[in-house]
Amino acid sequence: MMEPTWDLSVFYKGFDDPALREDIRQIQQWAVKAGQLEGEDVTATLEGALRAMETLENLLSRAFGFAQLTAEADNTNDEALRLISELDNIMVEVSLAHSRIVRYVGQVEDLEARIAQSEFLQGYAFILREMKDNAAHLLPADMEKWMLRMQLDGGDAFSKLRDRLMGTLTVDLDGKSLPLPAVRGMAYDPDPAVRKAAYEAELQSYRKVETPMAYCLACIKGEAMTLSEARGFSDLLSQQLYETRMDRETLEALLTAIRESLPDFRRYLKAKGALLGHFNGLPFYDLFAPVGRNERKYTVEEARELLVRVFTQVDPEMGAFIDNAFSNRWIDLFPREGKSGGAFCAGFHAMGISRVLTNFVGSFSDVSTLAHELGHGWHNRCMLRMPVLLSDSPMPLAETASIFNETLLSHEVRKTADEETRFSLLENSLMESTQTIVDIYSRYLFETGVLEARKTHIPTAEEFNRLMLDAQEAAYGDGLDPNVRHASMWVNKSHYYSTGRHFYNFPYAFGHLFGLGVFRKYLEKGSAFMPEYHALLSRCGSAPIAEVASSVGIDVRSVDYWRGALDIIRGEVEEFLSLCRNR
């Protein structure tokens, strides 16, 4: 029997492991060493600073990884929460050391000549040039330390409060107190009464926390707006685009194509609603309802066998990688009280491993989620070709391998399935596309509205509810029943509460459509494309987005590219509507 929880002993044996305390001591020492930028030899100083950053990155990844993964699996683990708090305090000195390095690089007038003198620096040329640009957006040196410390009691504290509130929130349903992820998983249940009851209970549960959650969100965004202005950005969106190596021309091309495509998604939603007996748009609680007679539930063993078989056909190394992830307990599988909802994958470059969290309940969507997260893991594996400081993909490109995996799985399974199963899988594909295009667009609109409101006041939970409903109306339109939407979705989505990443939404739409474009290249070239694909994944952290995309012949600044990617989804909508007419 496969273990359903992940193995964290590869990090440390426990919170009392002497190796953990030694790593923390080393982090503190290297933070000091990294910030010591003295000596007449500028080239040697640059080399020493980058090597110190490499060491710090590896140490921090291991220590933070152990603490954060433990907390994600059990939000009530006080030892993990204490360690995260301790490391957050140490990170003030790490951040200051990093800023000193950036300032130093910004003042090197002959940077290109220095890079040319050193093979090591040539390997990090992209990072050094980016640092020189970043120097213009640093806080004043005499202010930065105090701002970082204030953040620990500001945005960081509110983010932790959010995690604690949501990690301990239970839902009262049928006389039982259930963990929120388990109740949200009922949205996929074949019984409409179960879906509706779970939706109503979920909304009711949010009333217990919506007031403190509103303060968490408002204060996190308020702090971010202040810091963004202090760093010389015109607004938070401009900062996010800069930090993700994406230009506004690309964003506008993407959003233009998305807005044009919304009527197609609404046709799909209304058709699905009609299948389920709804004629005023689809009620929110049926967004994830299974249709057709393919109500199969997968065991974890069946999911594993399917994934290994499908990906081995494309690339035996990818298939072996997935099998290894199951065999070596890389995955924490099932929902339980205190565990975070949703799914994610975390990579650890120096250790050559990843860890995946899911809340598996057995639907095909859960199998697809495993494929998605293991796609992130494969991306991490491809990044091992690069030095650690070039292994961090910007958010829009970080979804490339995960979307490729999802699309490939659906494509392969549908090829050999009977008509009823193909219909169900087609709908599942459209359901997922609706989330990453339409719902993500609503989240983008919501966050834009939040920031506008936050300019003048701290919005209440009621205001956030109205903003969310307005965003859902603009995105979903008549595809959703106007009387059965989800005003409290802002409470549930952790992305809004990130202190280091804002507009944590449009990158998913970018990633979905970029992943479809890459998959189209695979269909054109077959297995001969795989080396090119793996090279693309390895480059994601070492060039601007437009340049990475152009390496496989994609122009992300062109609206026509995004229209072409959306045409794939439009074709699925037409096929879905045709099949609906025959039912």
The percent range for strand residues is: under 5%
Which sheet architecture does the biggest sheet show?
3 strands, mixed
Number of helices: 25
> Which H/E pattern describes the elements?
HHHHHHHHEEHHHHHHHEEEHHHHHHHHHH
Descriptive keywords:
583 residues; mainly alpha; three-stranded mixed β-sheet; two-stranded antiparallel ribbon; 5 strands; 67% helix; globular
Brief write-up:
The chain contains 25 helices and 5 strands. The chain is mainly alpha-helical and 583 residues long.
Please describe what this structure looks like.
There is one protein chain. With 583 residues, the chain is mainly α. Helices cover 67% and strands 3% of the residues. It contains 25 helices and five strands. The chain has helices spanning 18-34, 42-73, 78-107, 111-117, 119-123, 125-134, 141-152, 155-168, 180-185, 192-206, 210-230, 236-243, 248-275, 300-314, 316-327, 364-383, 395-398, 400-416, 419-454, 461-476, 489-492, 506-525, 530-539, 545-550, 559-581; strands at 170-173, 176-179, 331-332, 344-348, 353-357. β1 and β2 (176-179) form a beta hairpin. α1 (18-34) packs parallel to α3. It is globular.
Lay out the secondary structure.
Layout: H1 18-34, H2 42-73, H3 78-107, H4 111-117, H5 119-123, H6 125-134, H7 141-152, H8 155-168, E1 170-173, E2 176-179, H9 180-185, H10 192-206, H11 210-230, H12 236-243, H13 248-275, H14 300-314, H15 316-327, E3 331-332, E4 344-348, E5 353-357, H16 364-383, H17 395-398, H18 400-416, H19 419-454, H20 461-476, H21 489-492, H22 506-525, H23 530-539, H24 545-550, H25 559-581
